[in-house]
Amino acid sequence: MSFTKLGLNPNILKAIEEQGYTKPTLIQEQAIPKVLEKKDLLAAAQTGTGKTAAFTLPLLEFMSSKPHKKEQKAYIKALILVPTRELALQVFENIQAYSKYLHLKTAVIFGGVGINPQKASLRKGVDIVIATPGRLIDHMSQNTIDLSRVDFLVLDEADRMLDMGFIHDIKKVVAKVPNHRQTLLFSATFSDEIKKLSNSFLTNPQTVEVARSNTLSEQVSQAVHYVTKEKKKSLLAFLIHTQEWNQVLVFTRTKHGANRLSEFLNKNNISSLAIHGNKSQGARTTALKDFKSKKIRVLVATDIAARGIDIELLPHVINYELPNVPEDYVHRIGRTGRAGNVGEALSLVCDEEAQFLEDIEKLTKTTIPVRDVEGFTISSLKKPKKTSNTKNRSSKRNSSKTNERRTKPTTNKKAKHSEKKDFKKEVEEFIDNRKRQTSKRNSNRKITGNYRKGQGSKSK
Ligand code: AMP
Question: Could you tell me if the CB of 21 is within 6 A of ligand 1?
């Protein structure tokens, strides 16, 4: 199918052609006609599938077909709610590109930056607003935004907004937009919570599901390395050096962990920046810009901060620590293998994370191949005995949120000690060790890449 067949106007077609899009992605092919029929939509789409254009293009089509007179001040017709500032900026950039030849004004509003410039742009009049819930509520309570004429409401990455505790804010916002609006809800997964949300906010929605919930992009090859907690840092640096990776997105579970890892990498001649909720918006934007332009090699991110990272051809995603919420694994590795490109996702897994790995494999119905790196990896994982911390699995979501938002990291003396150990020493040790292992077949300096469970992810 071509974009022309979707019935979009020539100015939109021209803009998307300039973006290099030749044909609609699956979600676009399925969602755009339904939105153009003025139906509410409940869409399950993995990140990286082209979902932003799937909801944006038909909205632009509607809005451009009813342009307001030049002398008339624009008013908000479309409100797009997103979970994070990064995603807000990403959606904003996309809309700017797609509406290049239309006379529509777009504003993006999120916290962590001054509110006054946002007020000024709203005062001038805009057609589309992309907002994170918290700052939108600030504007609503200060009466600096008028949502009374909103025709289109989009809840993007709704599952994530629920995870981040935005449900009350979302309800407040929905209460302020007209009932006769058209509502589109996008989520990576169709959980019961999402279905509940859809029942209360959407009217007879059409459903679109391009990839089964919690399935992984086939474009991404996955592998795990079994490794002790202490060796993770040096294994990561070793892989980046020897494999000559130039653009690597690394996930940690805590903000402090992200900072420490980034410092370690910089000390070992691997340029890196950390991005997480404690960083100012300016620092986050700079880090993303430097990473996109390859000024730095590694971006170390926590889950929440990584939302909205969209880099074409991002080749490597590393889970330095596995997420304790298995759905986050799907989100994380969806950062690579986007829009038809191939990518690689590696996870460094230690004993304490054996259960997380099991949960991920169960959720995604895959067996992730295990890859060895001589001198660094261990042959198997030993699941630690359950403690009171690991017993309560129902509190997993909360603990994941806490990791990002407020907890102090647990300080493990052994881990701290090994952090100080110079990476060069580790490599020297590795080389010595390797020389001794004369029986091993391949003695060049590249990793062996042995797979023990199989050659690729396969259905169980
Ligand atoms: P999204 O899922 O909206 O984050 O989009 C992921 C990536 O796919 C972005 O880099 C888009 O620019 C790109 N993209 C969206 N639609 C298309 C298309 N029809 N053809 C090629 N790339 C696309």
Answer: yes
Q: Are 344 and 313 in contact (CB under 8 A)?
A: no
Instruction: State the closest ligand 1 atom to the C-alpha of 312, by its place in the atom list counted from 1.
Output: 10
The DSSP secondary-structure symbol of 370 reads B
Cα–Cα distance measured from residue 60 to residue 224, given in angstroms and rounded to the nearest whole number:
43
Domain annotation for the chain: domains and CATH numbers: 3-209 (3.40.50.300), 220-364 (3.40.50.300)
Instruction: Please state the atom number of ligand 1 nearest to the C-alpha of residue 48.
Output: 2
Q: How many CB atoms lie within 10 A of CB 418?
A: 17
Centre of ligand 1 from the C-alpha of residue 48, in Å: 6
Burial status of residue 142 (CB atoms within 10 A of its CB: 0-12, 13-18, 19 or more):
exposed
Determine the residue type at 269. N
Task: Compute CA distances 454 → 77, 242, 368, 369, 430, whole Å.
Answer: 52, 23, 8, 6, 26
Residue type, 2: S
Whole-model pTM?
A: 0.60
> Which of 49, 84, 187 has the most ligand 1 atoms within 8 A of CB, as the residue to mutate?
49
pLDDT tens by residue, 355-399: 999 998 888 888 899 999 988 999 888 877 765 444 443 333 333
Q: Which residue lies with its CA nearest to atom 6 of ligand 1? A: 48
